Amino acid sequence: MQQRVIAHRVISRAFQLALRTPVRRHSAPAVPGPVRFLVMDLHEKGGSVRSNLLLAGGLAREHPVEVLSLFVADEESFYAVPPGVTTRVLDDRRTSTRKGRLQRLASRVPSILLHPEDRSRDSFTLWTDIQAIRALRQLDGGWLVTTRPALHLVAARFAPPGVVVIAREHDNFTKIRAAVRQDLRDLAHGLDGLSVLTLADEHDYQDLLGPYGVDVFQAPNALDPLPGDPARGRSTVVLAAGRLTVQKGFDLLIDAFAPVAQRHPDWRLRIFGDGPRRPELEAQVSALGLDGVVQLLPATRQIGQEMAQAGIFVLSSRFEGFGRVVLESLSKALPVVSFDCPRGPGEIISPGRDGLLVPAEDVEALSAAILELIEDEPLRRRLGDAGPAKAAQYDLPTISARWVRELASLVDRRGAPR
């Protein structure tokens, strides 16, 4: 892997030189323009896509906003594009799209610019590289918000000097690999700002990039009001939601629910989500004799209505970037039990006031906390009642205003008018 990383650095630098790309510096004057978001796949299901679209909609009240999607594969977007936000797809992979010979050939060649340690590198191709560089070199100013480490690095190399580049990081610092951290530090001169979701990440990234002139700031995910009534507190459903991946820890939750089901056979666990771990989780449910008690349901756009009909929400992740689904549950007055995993839930939940926290990956503690809420209805109701006030601290106007101030500050630092 080390050889691949070194080769990637050499090739990326060679591309810069061959294209005569000016080196970005914090001292270069900023050029006025719109706010643009650079995302991987606009049509992808996932919290980061939803979060970026929500923020784009909030900023569209103050600035022109465009979302650039490196590619799309699905015919339709899972999430609606907010009013006032325009979109542009650089590599359209939908079956309904006609493709030229060059595109077909370049689409068969793996990416050479995306960092070799990016988890989604296999989704990128040489055609994606070509379209990304072309789009970046054509930017005429404004702000560019990149949304994953590999895109931070590409923008730091190839965005024009007059563009203010802000890396918006969704993953927590501990999950960013050492080689990627080193490249971020080496290319810090090309990044104006870096936004993170938690205070812990702000501290770590400040140590990494602050000495090199990058403005590191914390701006949590905004909360999108969900449809549906508040939870009524009388349901016998434990709810969980997220991608069916190792990260989300639904295997731990299913294990934790087994003793709950024995003690309270009228309670059910409903998990909403899609992903590669479905076969393993279905087998686990059957092996524990929980068929009909634990339900694995497809991802839904109606999660607000599902929360309104639940009694408890559980976050069982091994790690998180933030854990916005916790906020969504709090907004619905739905009491929350969560692992105190790195990072996010511990900064959102005030234990005993608006939710319960248990040690990360401690299945017995998770089971005990669920049982505590089931068997203590006054506690369940008290935690639920406190949720909406906590969630209100993360509403879209509040988070958007923080971003608007930061955008202005970064331009002022460059010494150019907005």
Care to describe what's here?
The protein is of the alpha/beta class. The chain has 2 domains: 232 residues, Glycogen Phosphorylase B (Rossmann fold), CATH 3.40.50.2000; 156 residues, Glycogen Phosphorylase B (Rossmann fold). Helix content is 40%, strand content 16%. It has 15 helices and 13 strands. The strands form 2 sheets. It has a 7-stranded parallel β-sheet with strand order 3-2-1-4-5-6-7, sandwiched between helices. The mean pLDDT is 92.
Quickly describe the structure.
40% of the residues lie in helices and 16% in strands. The protein is of the alpha/beta class.
Distance between the termini: 43 Å
CATH class of the largest domain: Alpha Beta
Shape: globular
Mind summarizing the main beta sheet? 7 strands, parallel
Low-confidence stretches: none
CATH topology of the largest domain: Rossmann fold
Radius of gyration: 22 Å
Overall number of structural domains: 2
Question: Within the largest sheet, what's the order of strands?
Answer: 3-2-1-4-5-6-7
CATH architecture annotation of the largest domain: 3-Layer(aba) Sandwich
Output mean pLDDT: 92
Strand coverage percent = 15-25%
